[in-house]
Write a structure and sequence with these properties.
This protein is an alpha/beta fold. The protein is built from 13 helices and 15 strands. The strands form two sheets. A nine-stranded mixed beta sheet has the order 14-13-12-11-7-10-9-8-15. A six-stranded parallel beta sheet has the order 3-2-1-4-5-6, with helices on both faces. It binds nicotinamide-adenine-dinucleotide (NAD). The site of nicotinamide-adenine-dinucleotide (NAD) has 26 residues, from α1, β2, α3 and α4.
Length: 440
């Protein structure tokens, strides 16, 4: 039994009945429809931030809301968000110039200086963790994109934030949108109810071509460069196993009845991501996650063009199988019977906002913070396993003092990782890591 086992209360589990109403308890009814205007603040005005904001403003629970504050490290994304809202949602945009924040701590400014009720945290993950804690302490309702942390110290901060939000009776949901899609919810409930027998093994995939690079520009400080090219630095993204594959990792934990693995081993490396623009992260990881009763979760993620791609999750039981495509269909096969098929009929990104605002206006209690932190911790465990090449236990990883966040968050801060004279950043070499350097 894992010493630092984290268990979830019903109100902290999204997926199944919780995505509807059953797992929500009555909370304070502070923003009932027709009552006070709900003021929304967005932190991180990139692609997902703008999408999440439009989803929030399009929610099906209430139209009694406006965006009143927006924040980003840079002015340009703030202006792009303003332009988008003025053209697509003009009736819901009411952001005075003094509530448009840019700067390295723009999220902190928005949370502490604007009087928004709800914050949408869509900045790079490593920045999000501390904003999540600030927002929880400030008593905001929160939508936090995934992952909520990139290192074990950050996971513990996220767990603290979840606890504070719970105590303050505020809603906290995390951007694991698959938790809100019926084509995941219904077959996973059947799996939990024993439809395919005892769970033996799971496989999960996030294989695709990879994402953008944002090369360093003349005159940029290292901090400016890393915040723009954030995907390629572990303190900001946690590597793609954490930043993207965390969706499937969360589904793996969900299929295992919201348990987390107790140990992991893996291998990974970089074959095509070898340039100054690719920072320090790998382009492929394979991890064997081991749960109680020796149930296996086999995880594969790759960011290499022109290869076999898949965004999917699979379970093998003693009496059948479940195969779910992230954006496609789900097939549950009970041995000897006709397969049952679900198709994706709607997008969980919109549904999660419908659920968030329904909970706010109807005074429901909903907190997915712990669930999100466990998914992030599981992804971090996988990264520590592939980077080190040795088996790592959940307990050792969860308790580790590994803290990648810079000591100072200023534009001219001296931060790690540092590029060599050839512009390349060092990356982890399996077999050559001293676990004591990770506080383990
Ligand atoms: N749930 C999903 O399906 C999904 C999809 C895409 C992205 N995401 C998540 O959303 C987050 C953002 O991704 P994206 O695709 O929008 O990236 P992006 O690069 O388009 O946007 C990130 C934004 O954050 C800003 N930023 C950087 N440092 C900041 C700081 N200190 N304070 C405030 N803002 C800062 C950047 O300037 C940029 O505008 C990531 O965590 C990503 O994993 C989730």
């Amino acid at each position: 039994m894992s010493e630092s086992r984290i268990s979830l209360k019903t109100s902290e589990v999204i997926g199944g009945a919780a995505a509807g109403v059953a797992a929500m308890q009555a909370g304070s009814r502070v923003h009932a429809e027709g009552g006070d205007l709900i003021k929304i603040g967005l932190v991180g005005c990139g692609g997902r931030g703008r999408g999440a904001l439009i989803n929030a403003l399009s929610n099906t629970a209430t139209q009694n809301l406006k965006v009143t504050a927006i924040a980003d490290a840079f002015e340009q994304p703030v202006r792009a968000t303003e332009k988008l809202c003025r053209s697509e949602k003009p009736d819901f945009f009411s952001v005075p110039e003094e509530q448009m924040y840019w700067g390295i701590e723009a999220g902190k400014d928005l949370i502490e200086k604007s009087n928004v009720d709800v914050v949408l945290l869509c900045e790079p993950p490593g920045i999000r963790t501390r904003n999540l804690l600030l927002a929880a302490k400030a008593g905001k309702h929160i939508f936090a994109e995934k992952p909520v942390a990139t290192d074990p110290v950050g996971v513990r901060i996220a767990l603290e934030a979840a606890e504070i939000a719970e105590q303050k009776g505020k809603i906290l949901i995390v951007g694991h949108h698959l938790r809100y899609e019926d084509k995941h919810i219904e077959p996973i409930k059947m799996l939990h109810d024993g439809a395919i027998g005892d769970l033996v093994c799971m496989r999960i995939y996030f294989n695709d071509a990879g994402v953008w690079t944002r090369p360093k520009q003349a005159g940029e400080t290292e901090m400016q460069h890393q915040l723009k090219n954030w995907y390629y630095f572990n303190w900001l993204s946690g590597d793609h196993i954490c930043e993207q594959h965390v969706h499937d990792i969360d589904v793996m934990n969900w299929m295992a009845k919201d348990q987390h693995p107790i140990r992991a081993n893996g291998m990974g490396g970089r074959q095509v991501r070898i340039s100054p623009n690719h920072g320090e992260i790998y382009d492929h990881h394979t991890v064997e996650f081991i749960f109680d009763d020796e149930v296996r979760g086999l995880s594969y993620c790759r960011h290499i063009p022109n290869c076999w791609n898949s965004f999917s999750e699979h379970a093998i039981g003693t009496k059948g199988t479940l195969d779910i495509e992230g954006h496609g269909r789900s097939v549950l096969k009970i041995n000897g019977k006709e397969p049952q098929v679900w198709r994706r009929t709607y997008d969980g990104h919109q549904k999660e906002m419908n659920v968030l605002f329904d909970a706010i206006v109807n005074g429901k209690k909903l907190n997915a913070g712990k669930q999100g932190a466990i998914a992030s911790m599981t992804a971090i465990l996988g990264r520590l396993a592939t980077y080190s090449g040795v088996e790592i236990s959940w307990d050792a990883a969860f308790k580790s003092t590994l803290d990648l966040f810079p000591k100072k968050l200023t534009w001219d801060a001296d931060i790690a990782p540092k590029p060599g004279t050839d512009g390349l950043y060092p990356c982890a070499i399996p077999g050559a890591i001293n676990l004591a350097d990770w506080g383990m």
